[in-house]
Amino acid sequence: MPSKERLFGTNGIRGVVNKELTPQMATSIGSAIGTFFKREKLIVGYDARTSGPMLAMAVISGINATGCDTYFAGMAPTPALQYAVKNHKMAGAVIITASHNPPEYNGIKVIWKDGIELSHEQEMEVERIYFKGKTEYAEWNQLGTKHELLETISEYIQAIKKHVDTAQIEKKKYHVVVDAANSVGGLAAPFLLRELGCKVTTVNANIDGSFPGRPPEPRPENLEELASIVRAVKADIGVAFDGDADRSVFVDEKGAVHWGDKTFALVEKHFLKKNRGEIIVTPVSSSTLIKDIADAHGGEIVWTKVGSVTVSHTMKKTHAKLGGEENGGIFYGPHNAVRDGAMATALILNIIAETGEKLSNLLAELPKYFIEKSKIECPEEIKEEVLRTLIQQLRGLNVNTIDGAKIWFEDGSAILIRPSGTEPIYRLYAESKTEETAAKLIKEYSLKLKRIIATSR
Ligand code: MG
Fold first, then answer.
1. Do 202 and 187 touch, CB atoms closer than 8 A?
2. How far, in Å, is the centroid of ligand 1 from the Cα of 101?
3. How far apart are CA 198 and CA 115, in angstroms?
4. pLDDT category, 421, cuts 50, 70, 90?
5. From the CA of 99, how far away is ligand 1's center (Å)?
6. What span, in angstroms and rounded, lies between the C-alpha atoms of 427 and 134?
7. What is the mean pLDDT of residues 15-40?
8. The CATH number of 155-257 is which of 3.40.605.10, 3.40.640.10, 3.40.50.1980, 3.40.120.10?
9. Between 349 and 420, whose confidence is greater?
10. How far apart are CA 214 and CA 226, in angstroms?
11. What pLDDT was estimated at residue 76?
12. 259 C-alpha vs ligand 1 centroid, how far in Å?
């Protein structure tokens, strides 16, 4: 949400349209981005939100005013636009999307030439240009030009197909139900799946920026309709995307919705079987399941802070080929080191085709954990001090402090205690092989945290 000092949040610039994000602002932000990129070529596209075309045109005006050319790709999934940056050797892209936020929101994501969102340092440079009046407008005869780039989605579909065994998948003639959240997820995945020989049933596939079908965040509680359709039509799998189709959540043939940790673990297992010794990048919020699979199949985990951009940048730095998040983000480096819903769907189909197994059976083979969650109120101004004190008290334990405090115990249990970035609370996530141990961990650490908060006030 744009404030006096900051434009960018954890995933680009976000705000309520015409309140926190107006076309005037979008034009100025476009010019700051154009100044940052220095007379280069930028792709511009948007998701299905009602404000997409309005904000895209405003951003394009701002960019062209600085002498940068724009290549307008229209409505497309975020990962398709990210792939197009690399494929067309552009300097970057500006994507008008608010991902999984409610329909009244929109946002601006800025992509670097590697297809990944700008680093924090690069974002700070754009902010400096925007807030300090450092925008450099071009002379009238050096303005940028607006071009069209219309094949991005079909090029994206062909690129994904190169990473899976298309003949093997085609033979199986799978039936897949796609829930596109009334957004751009319906523009690529159903066509990719048809090219892979699948029968495709779509739900919420009509483009509608008011998101009438379901909220654009693919949480299990939003996917009951998808699950019941998978059961009714006896499909092999179901998949639901978020508003800009970079996240994907899967439903097995029995209609059970699986959270991202599990499908990521399945992809990880099959990846490591063929690529022993590879690095797997995942935030500390991910389940110990990811570590169990890495331990069992010779992988090495690199834990990161929570956030998809951090996962992408860490993959690049460590030359990792696979990353994942518990919220349904799967990052497949050989295609693009960003989360990608259609790529993830192709990988899952590749696994069920190769093993000849049902998705429910493959997921049932993974180690099982019981999860308990809790939250504790904590005033914003003492959050940091509370975390410092907590970490001091955890000395001697197996703790990772890259984002909050994650503790792993000898019996395989774990707990993450992390201050929320948006609310005055601490969140606690415990997991264990037994329900009792997970509950016990939550109780014990809630008490510890409450004591620290009481003495820090
Ligand atoms: Mg998204």
1. no
2. 9
3. 29
4. confident
5. 4
6. 40
7. 97
8. 3.40.120.10
9. 349
10. 10
11. 98
12. 15
pTM of the prediction? 0.95
Compute the distance from residue 276 Cα to the ligand 1 centre, in Å.
Answer: 30
Q: Which fold has domain 370-456?
A: TATA-Binding Protein (3.30.310)
Q: What is the CATH number of domain 260-340+356-364?
A: 3.40.120.10
Query: How far, in Å, is the centroid of ligand 1 from the Cα of 155?
Result: 20
Q: Which fold has domain 13-150?
A: Alpha-D-Glucose-1,6-Bisphosphate; Chain A, domain 3 (3.40.120)
Taking residues 132-155, report their average pLDDT: 97
For the chain, the domains span: 13-150, 155-257, 260-340+356-364, 370-456
Catalytic residue ranges: 99
**pLDDT above 80 (res 1):** no
Tally the residues of the chain.
457
Domains 155-257 and 260-340+356-364 are alike in CATH topology: yes
Distance 139 CA to ligand 1 centre (A): 37
Alpha carbon separation from 409 to 157, 261, 372, 417, 430 (Å, rounded): 43, 20, 16, 14, 11
Most distant CA pair in the chain, distance? 71
Task: Kindly report, residue by residue over 249-293, the tens digit of the pLDDT.
Answer: 999 999 999 999 999 999 999 999 999 999 999 999 999 999 999
